[in-house]
Structures are given as C-alpha cells and as structure tokens.
Amino acid sequence: VRLGALKPSPRKPEELVGTAEVLDAKGKPDQKIAAGFQLTGDVATLSFSTRLPPGMVQFDGWYEWYRILRTTENGFFGTWFTESGPTVPLEGYFCAMRAEQSSH
Asked: From CA 79, how far away is CA 77, in angstroms rounded?
C-alpha cells in the first residue's frame, strides 16, 4: 500500500484525508481496488473496496477497513473489519512493515 499526503477533508473539518493505492507485485497500482486513508483525532483508517466506474454507487460487495492502533518507525499494527456481500462480518488484527523496493 502506498499512502499519499494528508489534507483537510472538504466535508469534515476535524478530519484529514489522503490517497492510498494498493500495489501489485511489480509496484504498479492495482486498478481493480479502490483505497482511501483518513485521520480523525488519533485514529487512522485505511479502507478498501472494489473500484467501480465513475458515477456508480456500490451497495454491496467487498469492503475492508483497517484501524491503525499503534505505529513504529517502519510499520504499524491495528484491527481490521471486512464485510463481503451476504457474508457474516469478520474481524481481527493485522500488522504491516515498510517494504523497500530494489533498484535492480
């Protein structure tokens, strides 16, 4: 996941929003996945869903949210929640570490 810079939300002044991209194995953005990043107070949230054509609204399907609880100099840890179509919601914990791309 590549995160962009945070900026004030046009809808909620107390919230910062930023871009997020899911990268494939070659480091290219995955065009099938929509991603977002929000910071409200001391809570940061990454969200993922199926990317739809412009103007379309998604009422069911794949959604995932990752709430970041703690950060370190090269990673973060938190809780996740997913809801996919008619399935029962699932939740758990996750951790992520910074990945360095090779120049070779």
From this structure: 7
